[in-house]
Amino acid sequence: MFRKNISFYIGSEAYNSQRPLIIAELGTSHNADPVKAREMISAAAEAGANCVKFQIVFADEILHPKTGEVALPGGKIRLYDRFKELEVPQDFYAELKKYAEYMGILFLCTPFGLKSASILHDLNPKIVKIASPELNFTSLLKEISAWHLPILLSTGVSLLADIEEALSILKNGNQLCLLHCITSYPAPENEYNLNILKNLSMIFGIPVGISDHTMDPELIPALSLSMGAAVIEKHFCLSRTDPGLDDPIALPPELFSRMVKTINWAAEAGPEKTLERFRRDWGEKTIEQVMGSGIKELAPSEKANYRLSNRSIHAMRDIKPGEIIKREDFAVLRTEKLLRPGLEPGFEFSIIGRTARNFIPAGEGIRFEDI
């Protein structure tokens, strides 16, 4: 089977080098409740995960308060405010790491900025993940690269050139693995383009895996294994009716367990028998669509989010024409739906001391023509 060596994941008692690393993405579904978080870790371990992943959230290092609203069961709420509700102290994550390791599985976490990265670094993790929207966050990539830890890099809503630029920063003696995904929730199975896995691995010479945002527990995980996936990540929840941001598209324990069993079956059966089974179950045409062209391009369901879910430079206050731009006047944030994107994060130190040419409203991206 085409799979690069991923020996750097060894350290988890549950990890078997003959199987992929199976990550239960718990994210923020704990809703800042440590009891629920431990319950989720236990349930994920019992369902067959050998790694659990969390997100260290601070609203002000992810987006601007004017970003927009998110619809939740209790009604609409500003996405910024929802993230504020999910902020917890460092001890919260320290206890979860301790509990995950007690359960014999890896603790994995995603930082979204330099503040959360500092907290994660203090936890002494064995591995770290960079989410797709932060793939172009230059300062964050440089910080994590300096840790010399194994890095998982998600590549949703990105082009080949974007991945290459990120790797030029991270390939500093670091062990890396690219996670192919589609930044859409839920993602359509027929857009997953699984043939890209082999191509990404050959182009960059590193292991690859999948971060699956589809609703089905078997199709993408099993077929990605047949394409050489060394890592398989899937959102996990206790129930799809729970109030977490990702719970509606996550797998509850019984479906996650079913996914793990199918992955194990596919590992034993091999690529040919796996493809044969899913062609029979899903139809030749569907499987052909799922496998795709193997060309790295934006999927139809994520194309509109390019440069919106990614990071760019945004004004933190109203900046008037003629004012000198100071470091505290802007931040590198996700643009999302309502605001305009600004300059790429790599320009954040170049605009300090520049004079504003146009009026730049708080929240909006700072563009070349504005300075």
By CATH, the architecture of the largest domain is named Alpha-Beta Barrel
- Average pLDDT, all residues: 93
What's the CATH topology name of the largest domain?
A: TIM Barrel
Radius of gyration: 20 Å
Counting structural domains, the number is 2
**Oligomer state of the chains in this structure:** single chain
Descriptive labels:
371 residues; alpha/beta; TIM Barrel; Type Iii Antifreeze Protein Isoform Hplc 12; 8-stranded parallel sheet; two-stranded antiparallel sheet; 12 strands; disordered N terminus
What does the model show?
The chain is of the alpha/beta class and 371 residues long. The protein has helices spanning 34-46, 79-85, 90-102, 114-122, 138-145, 160-170, 196-204, 219-226, 253-269, 271-282, 284-291, and strands at residues 21-27, 51-56, 69-72, 75-78, 106-111, 128-130, 151-154, 176-181, 208-212, 231-235, 311-315, 330-334. The model is unreliable at 1-16 (pLDDT under 50).
A few lines on this structure:
By secondary structure, this protein is an alpha/beta fold.
List the helices and strands and how they pair.
Layout: E1 21-27, H1 34-46, E2 51-56, E3 69-72, E4 75-78, H2 79-85, H3 90-102, E5 106-111, H4 114-122, E6 128-130, H5 138-145, E7 151-154, H6 160-170, E8 176-181, H7 196-204, E9 208-212, H8 219-226, E10 231-235, H9 253-269, H10 271-282, H11 284-291, E11 311-315, E12 330-334
Parallel strand pairs: 1-2, 1-10, 2-5, 6-7, 7-8, 8-9, 9-10
Antiparallel strand pairs: 3-4, 11-12
